[in-house]
Design a protein that fits this description.
- This protein has a domain of about 90 residues.
- It is about 50% helix and about 10% strand.
- The longest helix has 22 residues.
- The N and C termini lie far apart (about 55 Å).
- Bound molecules: zinc ion.
- Zinc ion binds next to loops.
């Protein structure tokens, strides 16, 4: 496993994960200068440094609402999935699934706050026959959380699942939004 890893560089981290890290408040300058502080006592691998940054942020709950926390963790897990696929020959779907789980947990929270009924749809990416076959199926956020068909073992995309969930308002047969209290 170890031998199959491709090493990333610090410049590579900025190119590859700068988007998500900048949003978390890490400037490119900080990513570079903090590496020099971190890379002591035999710790030198930029790969390990990126894992450290990811894990540090996953554990950082400071000042966040529950929705913001799930949103942040989803972005981190999704990027981790890309990273293991591209650099470490790892299982992208393992991390993508964690990202999706965070999304679904956020949808559960958002739907609690909504006056209208919300439902989760699946948007299939390229090369995913498994999810294409499930096209048009919807579930409540709770039900989708229990099911989680995306980024599963059935996923047929050789580069990992690039489908996603989306939270949409439920509509009745006339296309109108459905209030939570209404019975059809
Ligand atoms: Zn898929």
């Amino acid at each position: 496993m170890e031998s199959k890893k491709k090493q990333i560089t610090i410049a590579g981290i900025i190119t590859f994960a700068g988007g998500v890290l900048n949003k978390l408040g890490y400037t490119n300058e900080y990513i570079e200068s903090h590496y020099n502080e971190w890379a002591v006592e035999g710790r030198k691998s930029p790969n390990d440094y990126l894992w450290y940054l990811f894990n540090r942020e996953l554990n950082n709950v400071e000042g966040l609402t529950i929705e913001q926390l799930y949103n942040k963790n989803s972005a981190i897990y999704y990027t981790m999935g890309h990273f293991v696929m591209k650099y470490e020959n790892g299982d992208r779907n393992h991390y993508t699934r964690l990202a999706f789980e965070a999304d679904l947990n956020r949808y559960v929270e958002e739907s609690k706050d909504s006056d209208y009924q919300l439902e989760v749809v699946m948007v299939h990416g390229n090369n995913c026959e498994h999810i294409r076959a499930l096209d048009g199926q919807t579930r409540t956020p709770q039900e989708m959380l229990a099911w989680q068909p995306l980024a599963s073992r059935e996923c047929t995309n050789p580069t990992g699942c690039n489908c996603c969930y989306s939270l949409v308002p439920k509509r009745d047969t006339n296309g109108r939004l459905v209030r939570k209290s209404s019975k059809d």
